[in-house]
Design goal:
By secondary structure, the chain is an alpha+beta fold. The chain is built from 6 helices and 4 strands. The longest helix is centred in the middle third of the chain and has 19 residues.
Length: about 170
Amino acid sequence: MSPASVLTELNRLGGKHGIGRLDLVENRYVGMKSRGCYETPGGSILLKAHRAIESITLDREVAHLKDELMPRYASLIYNGYWWSPERRMLQTMIDASQATVNGWVRLKLYKGNVMVVGRDSATDSLFDPAISTFEDDAGAYQQADAGGFIKLHALRMRIAARLAAKKKG
């Protein structure tokens, strides 16, 4: 299907289930607040599916950085800066983050909700059930390694506690 056909069909399906109804108070660029009521069934469904496939194909730090950049990106577009150099720069970063985002997502639509019930990427999934288990992981994770990790990450708090204890005297 073409992107337009996909969006049209998702609008039809989502509309039947009351998905994507928004009532927002927005901060306009010129300083006023305005209220907007929108219906975006197809967009809401696509966003939920896209975020689901990103959850298994994006590295944690890449996902966090992208999430930090998206409000700035949205603001630039909302305020009419599509052709600005900063929007183009952000676009390059976002495009790079999406290079491995592919696969399938299964969703259920019901009474205004979009629920993810399955997802996979045959080529780029970072989720490995053999490692992400509380059972035998064939040596992928050594519990003994956690002690050093915890001690290292707690260093700044141990330093602060020592300083606080000195001040108390």
